[in-house]
Amino acid sequence: MIYQLHKPNRKIQGHLRLTGSKSISNRALIIRALSGEDFPIEQLAKANDTDLMMALLASDEIVRDAGPAGTTFRFLTAYLALQEGNQILTGTERMKQRPIGVLVEALRQLGANIEYLEEEGYPPLRIGEPSDLGKSNELQISAGTSSQFISALLMIAPVLPNGLRLHLEGKIVSRSYIEMTLGLMRHFGVSHEWEGQMISIKPQSYEAKPFIAEADWSAASYHYAMAAFADELDLQLDGLFENSFQGDAALVEIMEQFGVHSEFNETGVRLTKTGAALPPMFEWDFILCPDIAQTMAVICAGLGVQGLFTGLETLSIKETDRIQALKNELGKVSAYLSKLPARFSPNSNKEYYTVEGTATFSTIPTFDTYEDHRMAMAFAPLAMMGHIKIEDPMVVIKSYPAFYEDLELLGFVVER
Protein backbone atom coordinates (compact mmCIF):
# COMPACT_ATOMS: atom_id res chain seq x y z
CA MET A 1 0.00 0.00 0.00
CA ILE A 2 1.20 3.51 -0.84
CA TYR A 3 -0.30 6.88 0.12
CA GLN A 4 0.47 10.04 -1.84
CA LEU A 5 0.51 13.27 0.16
CA HIS A 6 0.73 16.94 -0.67
CA LYS A 7 -0.40 20.25 0.74
CA PRO A 8 -1.65 22.99 -1.59
CA ASN A 9 -0.28 25.77 0.64
CA ARG A 10 2.17 26.43 3.45
CA LYS A 11 -0.47 27.44 5.99
CA ILE A 12 -0.97 25.44 9.21
CA GLN A 13 -4.02 26.45 11.18
CA GLY A 14 -6.24 24.29 13.34
CA HIS A 15 -7.03 22.65 16.67
CA LEU A 16 -6.09 19.01 17.39
CA ARG A 17 -6.31 16.74 20.41
CA LEU A 18 -3.29 14.48 20.37
CA THR A 19 -3.43 10.85 21.44
CA GLY A 20 -2.09 9.97 24.88
CA SER A 21 1.57 9.13 25.27
CA LYS A 22 2.27 5.48 24.54
CA SER A 23 5.22 5.53 26.93
CA ILE A 24 3.14 6.90 29.80
CA SER A 25 0.08 4.77 29.01
CA ASN A 26 2.02 1.51 28.93
CA ARG A 27 3.77 2.27 32.20
CA ALA A 28 0.49 3.21 33.87
CA LEU A 29 -1.09 -0.08 32.69
CA ILE A 30 1.77 -2.16 34.13
CA ILE A 31 1.62 -0.22 37.41
CA ARG A 32 -2.15 -0.78 37.62
CA ALA A 33 -1.62 -4.51 37.07
CA LEU A 34 1.10 -4.61 39.73
CA SER A 35 -1.13 -2.72 42.20
CA GLY A 36 -3.63 -5.55 42.09
CA GLU A 37 -6.52 -3.08 41.96
CA ASP A 38 -8.49 -1.58 39.11
CA PHE A 39 -8.53 2.21 38.74
CA PRO A 40 -9.45 4.51 35.84
CA ILE A 41 -6.79 5.69 33.41
CA GLU A 42 -8.14 8.48 31.22
CA GLN A 43 -6.89 9.51 27.76
CA LEU A 44 -4.94 6.31 27.19
CA ALA A 45 -2.94 6.25 23.98
CA LYS A 46 -4.99 5.24 20.96
CA ALA A 47 -2.13 3.07 19.77
CA ASN A 48 -1.68 -0.55 18.80
CA ASP A 49 1.07 -0.99 21.38
CA THR A 50 -1.23 0.17 24.16
CA ASP A 51 -4.18 -1.90 22.91
CA LEU A 52 -1.84 -4.90 22.88
CA MET A 53 -0.65 -4.17 26.40
CA MET A 54 -4.22 -4.05 27.72
CA ALA A 55 -5.23 -7.21 25.87
CA LEU A 56 -2.16 -9.20 26.93
CA LEU A 57 -2.44 -8.13 30.58
CA ALA A 58 -6.05 -9.34 30.55
CA SER A 59 -5.33 -12.54 28.61
CA ASP A 60 -5.36 -16.02 30.13
CA GLU A 61 -3.85 -17.57 27.01
CA ILE A 62 -0.59 -19.47 27.39
CA VAL A 63 0.89 -17.90 24.23
CA ARG A 64 0.89 -14.11 24.22
CA ASP A 65 1.94 -12.33 21.03
CA ALA A 66 3.25 -8.79 21.46
CA GLY A 67 3.60 -8.32 17.70
CA PRO A 68 6.09 -5.54 16.87
CA ALA A 69 5.61 -3.73 20.20
CA GLY A 70 9.01 -3.49 21.89
CA THR A 71 7.83 -1.61 24.98
CA THR A 72 4.98 -4.06 25.46
CA PHE A 73 7.27 -7.07 25.09
CA ARG A 74 9.89 -5.81 27.52
CA PHE A 75 7.50 -4.62 30.23
CA LEU A 76 5.49 -7.84 30.00
CA THR A 77 8.65 -9.95 30.30
CA ALA A 78 9.27 -8.48 33.75
CA TYR A 79 5.60 -8.54 34.76
CA LEU A 80 5.00 -12.15 33.70
CA ALA A 81 8.18 -13.24 35.47
CA LEU A 82 6.35 -12.59 38.76
CA GLN A 83 3.17 -14.44 37.88
CA GLU A 84 1.99 -17.99 38.54
CA GLY A 85 1.76 -20.54 35.75
CA ASN A 86 3.63 -20.77 32.47
CA GLN A 87 3.42 -18.38 29.53
CA ILE A 88 5.09 -18.03 26.17
CA LEU A 89 5.80 -14.47 25.04
CA THR A 90 6.51 -13.97 21.36
CA GLY A 91 6.39 -11.30 18.65
CA THR A 92 7.03 -10.54 14.99
CA GLU A 93 10.12 -11.67 13.07
CA ARG A 94 11.64 -8.23 13.67
CA MET A 95 10.93 -8.60 17.40
CA LYS A 96 12.79 -11.91 17.34
CA GLN A 97 15.85 -9.99 16.09
CA ARG A 98 15.77 -7.50 18.98
CA PRO A 99 17.97 -8.57 21.92
CA ILE A 100 16.31 -9.28 25.26
CA GLY A 101 19.22 -11.06 27.00
CA VAL A 102 20.21 -8.22 29.32
CA LEU A 103 16.71 -8.07 30.82
CA VAL A 104 16.30 -11.85 30.99
CA GLU A 105 19.62 -12.32 32.78
CA ALA A 106 18.73 -9.60 35.30
CA LEU A 107 15.33 -11.21 35.99
CA ARG A 108 16.97 -14.62 36.39
CA GLN A 109 19.25 -13.16 39.07
CA LEU A 110 16.09 -12.05 40.89
CA GLY A 111 14.71 -15.60 40.77
CA ALA A 112 12.76 -15.56 37.50
CA ASN A 113 12.32 -18.77 35.50
CA ILE A 114 12.80 -17.81 31.83
CA GLU A 115 13.99 -19.90 28.87
CA TYR A 116 14.73 -19.00 25.26
CA LEU A 117 12.67 -20.98 22.76
CA GLU A 118 14.77 -20.17 19.69
CA GLU A 119 17.99 -18.15 19.54
CA GLU A 120 19.80 -17.52 22.83
CA GLY A 121 19.33 -13.92 23.95
CA TYR A 122 16.28 -13.24 21.75
CA PRO A 123 12.51 -13.75 21.80
CA PRO A 124 10.39 -15.84 21.99
CA LEU A 125 10.51 -16.68 25.71
CA ARG A 126 8.99 -19.34 27.95
CA ILE A 127 8.28 -17.71 31.30
CA GLY A 128 7.51 -20.04 34.20
CA GLU A 129 6.71 -19.44 37.85
CA PRO A 130 9.63 -17.85 39.72
CA SER A 131 11.54 -20.40 41.78
CA ASP A 132 13.03 -18.20 44.44
CA LEU A 133 11.75 -14.68 43.88
CA GLY A 134 13.81 -12.03 45.61
CA LYS A 135 16.78 -14.35 46.25
CA SER A 136 18.84 -11.27 45.44
CA ASN A 137 17.85 -7.62 45.68
CA GLU A 138 20.99 -6.20 44.07
CA LEU A 139 21.60 -5.98 40.34
CA GLN A 140 24.17 -4.43 38.09
CA ILE A 141 23.11 -3.45 34.59
CA SER A 142 24.75 -1.47 31.84
CA ALA A 143 23.49 2.12 31.93
CA GLY A 144 23.89 2.13 28.16
CA THR A 145 21.30 -0.60 27.64
CA SER A 146 17.71 0.10 26.67
CA SER A 147 15.91 2.30 29.19
CA GLN A 148 12.95 -0.06 28.72
CA PHE A 149 14.96 -2.86 30.36
CA ILE A 150 15.76 -0.59 33.28
CA SER A 151 12.18 0.69 33.53
CA ALA A 152 10.81 -2.87 33.46
CA LEU A 153 13.00 -3.77 36.45
CA LEU A 154 12.18 -0.59 38.34
CA MET A 155 8.41 -1.04 38.01
CA ILE A 156 8.47 -4.53 39.54
CA ALA A 157 10.96 -3.48 42.24
CA PRO A 158 8.48 -2.40 44.95
CA VAL A 159 6.56 -5.69 44.81
CA LEU A 160 9.71 -7.83 45.18
CA PRO A 161 10.09 -9.29 48.71
CA ASN A 162 13.22 -7.26 49.40
CA GLY A 163 12.82 -4.44 46.90
CA LEU A 164 15.72 -3.68 44.56
CA ARG A 165 19.04 -1.89 44.49
CA LEU A 166 19.91 -1.30 40.84
CA HIS A 167 23.44 -0.19 40.00
CA LEU A 168 23.78 1.46 36.58
CA GLU A 169 27.22 0.87 35.11
CA GLY A 170 28.73 3.45 32.78
CA LYS A 171 27.12 6.31 30.87
CA ILE A 172 23.35 6.54 31.37
CA VAL A 173 21.45 6.49 28.06
CA SER A 174 17.87 7.83 27.77
CA ARG A 175 17.89 9.09 31.37
CA SER A 176 14.62 10.94 30.75
CA TYR A 177 12.75 7.65 30.23
CA ILE A 178 14.09 6.31 33.53
CA GLU A 179 13.00 9.54 35.21
CA MET A 180 9.58 9.22 33.56
CA THR A 181 9.21 5.74 35.06
CA LEU A 182 10.27 6.86 38.53
CA GLY A 183 8.03 9.93 38.30
CA LEU A 184 5.00 7.79 37.48
CA MET A 185 5.87 5.37 40.29
CA ARG A 186 6.06 8.34 42.64
CA HIS A 187 2.61 9.47 41.47
CA PHE A 188 1.31 6.06 42.54
CA GLY A 189 2.91 6.28 45.97
CA VAL A 190 6.24 4.47 45.44
CA SER A 191 9.34 6.26 46.70
CA HIS A 192 12.92 5.74 45.59
CA GLU A 193 16.44 6.97 46.20
CA TRP A 194 18.80 7.75 43.33
CA GLU A 195 22.34 8.49 44.43
CA GLY A 196 25.07 8.53 41.82
CA GLN A 197 24.68 5.34 39.78
CA MET A 198 22.48 3.52 42.33
CA ILE A 199 18.66 3.48 42.34
CA SER A 200 17.16 1.96 45.50
CA ILE A 201 13.50 1.00 45.91
CA LYS A 202 12.23 -0.58 49.13
CA PRO A 203 9.34 -3.08 49.25
CA GLN A 204 6.08 -1.10 49.17
CA SER A 205 2.65 -1.04 47.57
CA TYR A 206 1.38 0.97 44.64
CA GLU A 207 -1.56 3.22 45.51
CA ALA A 208 -4.57 2.80 43.24
CA LYS A 209 -5.72 6.26 42.14
CA PRO A 210 -7.30 7.77 39.00
CA PHE A 211 -4.80 8.90 36.36
CA ILE A 212 -4.83 11.07 33.24
CA ALA A 213 -2.26 10.19 30.58
CA GLU A 214 -0.55 13.21 29.03
CA ALA A 215 -0.56 13.51 25.25
CA ASP A 216 2.48 12.29 23.36
CA TRP A 217 5.27 14.79 22.74
CA SER A 218 6.76 12.43 20.15
CA ALA A 219 3.49 12.73 18.19
CA ALA A 220 3.59 16.49 18.69
CA SER A 221 7.01 16.60 17.01
CA TYR A 222 5.47 15.92 13.58
CA HIS A 223 3.17 18.91 13.97
CA TYR A 224 6.12 21.01 15.12
CA ALA A 225 7.83 20.00 11.85
CA MET A 226 4.80 21.25 9.90
CA ALA A 227 4.93 24.43 11.98
CA ALA A 228 8.59 24.92 11.04
CA PHE A 229 7.79 24.51 7.33
CA ALA A 230 4.74 26.81 7.47
CA ASP A 231 4.60 30.38 6.17
CA GLU A 232 1.50 31.02 8.32
CA LEU A 233 0.95 29.29 11.64
CA ASP A 234 -1.69 29.14 14.37
CA LEU A 235 -2.02 25.61 15.75
CA GLN A 236 -3.48 24.44 19.07
CA LEU A 237 -2.38 20.99 20.30
CA ASP A 238 -4.45 19.80 23.25
CA GLY A 239 -3.37 17.34 25.91
CA LEU A 240 0.25 18.43 26.38
CA PHE A 241 1.53 19.50 29.81
CA GLU A 242 4.08 22.25 30.44
CA ASN A 243 5.58 20.22 33.31
CA SER A 244 5.98 16.94 31.48
CA PHE A 245 7.40 13.52 32.37
CA GLN A 246 8.57 13.20 28.75
CA GLY A 247 12.05 14.02 27.52
CA ASP A 248 10.60 14.88 24.11
CA ALA A 249 9.13 18.03 25.67
CA ALA A 250 12.57 19.45 24.81
CA LEU A 251 10.79 20.37 21.56
CA VAL A 252 9.61 23.59 23.20
CA GLU A 253 13.20 24.82 23.52
CA ILE A 254 14.47 23.22 20.31
CA MET A 255 11.80 24.68 18.06
CA GLU A 256 12.34 28.26 19.20
CA GLN A 257 15.54 27.98 17.13
CA PHE A 258 13.35 27.28 14.09
CA GLY A 259 11.01 30.20 14.74
CA VAL A 260 8.20 28.23 16.40
CA HIS A 261 6.92 29.56 19.73
CA SER A 262 5.01 27.40 22.25
CA GLU A 263 2.48 29.09 24.53
CA PHE A 264 0.85 26.85 27.13
CA ASN A 265 -2.79 27.32 28.07
CA GLU A 266 -5.53 25.44 29.93
CA THR A 267 -5.93 22.65 27.38
CA GLY A 268 -2.47 22.32 25.85
CA VAL A 269 -0.09 24.43 23.78
CA ARG A 270 -0.54 26.95 20.96
CA LEU A 271 2.13 27.20 18.25
CA THR A 272 2.87 30.50 16.50
CA LYS A 273 5.70 31.97 14.46
CA THR A 274 8.31 34.20 16.09
CA GLY A 275 9.69 35.61 12.84
CA ALA A 276 13.24 34.70 13.91
CA ALA A 277 15.79 33.85 11.23
CA LEU A 278 16.81 30.24 10.83
CA PRO A 279 20.09 29.23 12.47
CA PRO A 280 23.02 28.46 10.14
CA MET A 281 23.57 25.30 12.18
CA PHE A 282 21.42 23.33 14.62
CA GLU A 283 23.24 21.29 17.27
CA TRP A 284 21.58 19.01 19.83
CA ASP A 285 22.35 16.01 22.04
CA PHE A 286 19.39 13.62 21.73
CA ILE A 287 20.47 11.34 24.58
CA LEU A 288 17.34 12.38 26.55
CA CYS A 289 14.97 12.49 23.58
CA PRO A 290 16.03 9.97 20.90
CA ASP A 291 12.51 9.54 19.51
CA ILE A 292 12.50 13.04 18.00
CA ALA A 293 15.87 12.71 16.26
CA GLN A 294 14.22 11.53 13.01
CA THR A 295 11.83 14.48 13.05
CA MET A 296 14.64 16.96 13.59
CA ALA A 297 16.74 15.43 10.80
CA VAL A 298 13.83 15.92 8.40
CA ILE A 299 13.27 19.49 9.63
CA CYS A 300 16.93 20.32 9.01
CA ALA A 301 16.78 18.78 5.53
CA GLY A 302 13.50 20.50 4.68
CA LEU A 303 14.81 23.93 5.66
CA GLY A 304 18.42 23.47 4.52
CA VAL A 305 19.81 23.94 8.03
CA GLN A 306 22.97 21.99 8.78
CA GLY A 307 22.46 19.66 11.74
CA LEU A 308 25.02 18.31 14.19
CA PHE A 309 23.49 15.47 16.22
CA THR A 310 24.77 13.42 19.15
CA GLY A 311 23.11 10.99 21.53
CA LEU A 312 21.85 8.63 18.81
CA GLU A 313 23.26 5.49 20.46
CA THR A 314 19.91 3.71 20.78
CA LEU A 315 18.56 4.46 17.29
CA SER A 316 20.04 1.36 15.68
CA ILE A 317 18.11 -1.05 17.94
CA LYS A 318 14.66 0.48 17.59
CA GLU A 319 11.89 -0.81 15.30
CA THR A 320 14.51 -0.61 12.59
CA ASP A 321 18.07 0.69 12.31
CA ARG A 322 16.85 4.28 12.27
CA ILE A 323 20.24 5.74 11.41
CA GLN A 324 20.56 3.64 8.25
CA ALA A 325 16.89 4.27 7.43
CA LEU A 326 17.40 8.03 7.72
CA LYS A 327 20.46 7.87 5.47
CA ASN A 328 18.50 5.95 2.84
CA GLU A 329 15.39 8.13 2.83
CA LEU A 330 17.01 11.57 3.14
CA GLY A 331 19.14 10.63 0.16
CA LYS A 332 15.98 10.40 -1.96
CA VAL A 333 15.57 14.19 -1.64
CA SER A 334 19.28 15.07 -1.94
CA ALA A 335 19.92 15.45 1.79
CA TYR A 336 22.46 13.45 3.74
CA LEU A 337 23.04 12.01 7.19
CA SER A 338 26.68 11.16 7.79
CA LYS A 339 28.69 9.97 10.76
CA LEU A 340 31.75 12.09 11.45
CA PRO A 341 35.03 10.21 11.82
CA ALA A 342 36.19 10.21 15.43
CA ARG A 343 39.12 12.54 14.64
CA PHE A 344 36.69 15.21 13.45
CA SER A 345 34.36 14.96 16.44
CA PRO A 346 34.43 18.01 18.71
CA ASN A 347 34.30 15.61 21.68
CA SER A 348 36.02 12.26 21.26
CA ASN A 349 33.69 10.63 23.81
CA LYS A 350 30.66 11.21 21.58
CA GLU A 351 29.54 10.08 18.15
CA TYR A 352 28.56 12.98 15.91
CA TYR A 353 26.30 12.88 12.87
CA THR A 354 25.73 15.68 10.40
CA VAL A 355 22.64 16.45 8.36
CA GLU A 356 23.46 18.39 5.20
CA GLY A 357 21.71 19.47 2.03
CA THR A 358 18.29 20.93 1.27
CA ALA A 359 15.41 18.65 0.32
CA THR A 360 14.67 18.87 -3.41
CA PHE A 361 11.90 17.18 -5.38
CA SER A 362 12.93 16.55 -8.99
CA THR A 363 10.59 13.54 -8.95
CA ILE A 364 7.99 12.33 -6.47
CA PRO A 365 9.96 10.47 -3.78
CA THR A 366 8.59 7.26 -2.28
CA PHE A 367 9.69 6.95 1.32
CA ASP A 368 10.08 3.47 2.76
CA THR A 369 9.01 3.04 6.38
CA TYR A 370 10.85 -0.13 7.49
CA GLU A 371 7.95 -1.23 9.74
CA ASP A 372 8.74 1.90 11.78
CA HIS A 373 5.89 4.28 12.62
CA ARG A 374 8.29 7.16 13.22
CA MET A 375 9.76 6.94 9.72
CA ALA A 376 6.32 7.43 8.17
CA MET A 377 5.38 10.36 10.41
CA ALA A 378 8.77 12.10 10.37
CA PHE A 379 8.81 12.28 6.56
CA ALA A 380 5.14 13.14 6.06
CA PRO A 381 5.60 16.90 6.74
CA LEU A 382 7.78 17.11 3.61
CA ALA A 383 4.47 16.98 1.72
CA MET A 384 4.42 20.72 2.40
CA MET A 385 7.39 21.02 0.03
CA GLY A 386 5.95 18.89 -2.79
CA HIS A 387 4.18 15.65 -3.59
CA ILE A 388 5.53 12.63 -1.72
CA LYS A 389 4.62 8.95 -1.42
CA ILE A 390 4.78 6.82 1.72
CA GLU A 391 5.18 3.05 1.52
CA ASP A 392 3.26 0.98 4.12
CA PRO A 393 1.70 4.18 5.52
CA MET A 394 -0.51 2.50 8.13
CA VAL A 395 2.51 1.51 10.18
CA VAL A 396 1.48 4.66 12.11
CA ILE A 397 -1.18 2.64 13.97
CA LYS A 398 1.59 1.54 16.34
CA SER A 399 1.39 4.90 18.12
CA TYR A 400 -0.86 7.39 16.24
CA PRO A 401 -3.71 5.71 14.29
CA ALA A 402 -5.43 9.04 13.51
CA PHE A 403 -2.30 10.60 11.99
CA TYR A 404 -3.56 10.92 8.41
CA GLU A 405 -6.99 12.11 9.51
CA ASP A 406 -5.28 14.85 11.53
CA LEU A 407 -3.21 15.78 8.47
CA GLU A 408 -6.41 16.17 6.48
CA LEU A 409 -7.86 18.41 9.19
CA LEU A 410 -4.83 20.65 8.64
CA GLY A 411 -5.38 20.83 4.89
CA PHE A 412 -3.17 18.03 3.60
CA VAL A 413 -4.42 15.98 0.66
CA VAL A 414 -4.00 12.27 1.37
CA GLU A 415 -4.56 10.05 -1.68
CA ARG A 416 -5.20 6.53 -0.42
Show the helix and strand layout.
Elements: E1 2-6, E2 11-17, H1 22-35, E3 41-42, H2 48-58, E4 63-65, H3 70-80, E5 87-90, H4 101-109, E6 113-116, E7 125-128, E8 138-142, H5 147-156, E9 164-169, H6 175-187, E10 193-195, E11 198-201, E12 211-212, H7 217-229, E13 232-238, H8 251-256, E14 260-264, E15 268-273, E16 281-285, H9 293-303, E17 306-310, H10 322-330, E18 336-339, E19 353-356, E20 366-367, H11 373-379, E21 388-391, H12 403-409, E22 413-415
Parallel strand pairs: 2-13, 3-12, 4-5, 8-9, 16-17, 20-21
Antiparallel strand pairs: 1-21, 1-22, 5-7, 6-7, 9-11, 10-11, 13-15, 14-15, 17-19, 18-19
Helix pairs in contact: 1-2, 1-3, 1-6, 2-3, 3-5, 4-5, 5-6, 7-9, 9-11
Describe the structure.
This protein has 416 residues and is α/β, with parallel strands linked by helices. It folds into two domains: 2-20 and 214-415, UDP-n-acetylglucosamine1-carboxyvinyl-transferase, Chain; 22-212, UDP-n-acetylglucosamine1-carboxyvinyl-transferase, Chain (Alpha-beta prism). The protein has helices spanning 22-35, 48-58, 70-80, 101-109, 147-156, 175-187, 217-229, 251-256, 293-303, 322-330, 373-379, 403-409; strands spanning 2-6, 11-17, 41-42, 63-65, 87-90, 113-116, 125-128, 138-142, 164-169, 193-195, 198-201, 211-212, 232-238, 260-264, 268-273, 281-285, 306-310, 336-339, 353-356, 366-367, 388-391, 413-415. The strands form six sheets. It has a four-stranded mixed β-sheet. It has a four-stranded mixed β-sheet with strand order 2-13-15-14. A four-stranded mixed β-sheet has the order 4-5-7-6, covered by helices on one side. The N and C termini lie close together (8 Å).
